[in-house]
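Worked problem 6 (solution included).
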Amino acid sequence: MSTAAHGGEPGAPNTEQSPRAGGVLLIVEDEESIGRLVKQYVEQDGWRAVWVRSGEEALAELNRHAVRVVVLDIGLPGMDGFEVCRRIRARSSVPIVMLTARDEEPDRVAGLEIGADDYVPKPFSPRELVARIKAILRRSEQRPHDEILAAGDVVLRRDAREVSVEGETLELTGKEFDLLACFLENPGIVLSRERLLDIVWGMTYPGGTRTVDVHVAQLRRKLGRPDLIRTLRGAGYKAVAP
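Solution. The predicted structure is:
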């Protein structure tokens, strides 16, 4: 049985997975026992862990360090994890794992919609947490690094997390932004719903593949370019250059 975050000593971390651990991992957790456990475990796995207990401290540390991953608790004093996630996403695409005792579906959905990359409910296995971090890094660090993607007058700026159509900036959710980036990175390539779930949500999403259809519909409506993303019955979707 794996060690859970509500007590016990961590087991030996798995250092054989790729990509390599290393760099700064920011832990934002106000509960001392969990913060110490996560810090100890990830440091054994090769990370330089920076542990803070509030959202305000987390935002300050992001200015001080080249943070590679954020492990973020939702139930923080003062500024909660949802607001911290929003503020991080306004300026950075650093991977974020939400860590919380809340296991209600609306909370999971809310965290993912505002830009979190994964969601781990407490109590959790530190080994699983590290495995999820590495899975997120595989997805994010293997993606193309073009900062600007475009299809006709639809322009996506990855560095600014902005999308514009005919020069007008659109308001997209975090997942809508990531979904559009996925389509623009793979023009003309058919992407199944399962593949889109893996790339954009990176997990077995509670809503299943239906959430892909919902997000594609919302994205088409906001873009005002229904022909940009074509549906292929029984296969999935693909972006079509205008």
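Discussion: The radius of gyration is 18 Å.
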